[in-house]
Amino acid sequence: MFELKTLFLFMATAIAEIVGCYLPYLWLKQGQSAWLLIPAAASLALFAWLLTLHPTAAGRTYAAYGGVYIFVAVLWLWSVEGVRPTAWDLAGSLVALVGMAIIMFGPRHA
C-alpha cells in the first residue's frame, strides 16, 4: 500500500509540475493569454508542496521523482499534445519507473 500511495503522490506531483510549465509554454510559444501565468504559478507552488509530503530524505525523493516525471511526461505527450509515444519513449519510461522503484523501495541500512 505504501508503494501505491508513493507512486500516486509522485504522479500528482508530476502533473502539477507539468501543468505549471506547460501553461507558460502556451503563452510564450502558442500566443495564448498571459493570464495563464496565474494558474501556472499556483500549479508550481502545489508541485513544491507535494514534494514535501514524502517521508524520505529530499535528495532521495527528488531522484526517484525524476523517474515518475519521465513516465507522466510521456503520458502527457500522448493525452494532451496528441503525439503517440514511440516504443523507445515507452521503454525509456519503464526503465525510469524501475529506477524510481529501486531508489524508493530498496532496502535501507540505518
UniProtKB/TrEMBL annotation:
Pfam families hit by this protein: UPF0060
Query: What parts of the sequence cross the membrane?
Result: 7-28, 34-53, 62-80, 86-106
This protein's UniProt keywords: Cell membrane, Membrane, Transmembrane, Transmembrane helix
Protein topology in the membrane: Multi-pass membrane protein
Q: Does the keyword Lyase apply?
A: no
Give compartment(s): Cell membrane
The record's section on PANTHER family has: UPF0060 MEMBRANE PROTEIN YNFA
Similarity-based family: Belongs to the UPF0060 family.
Q: What is this protein called?
A: Small multidrug resistance family-3 protein
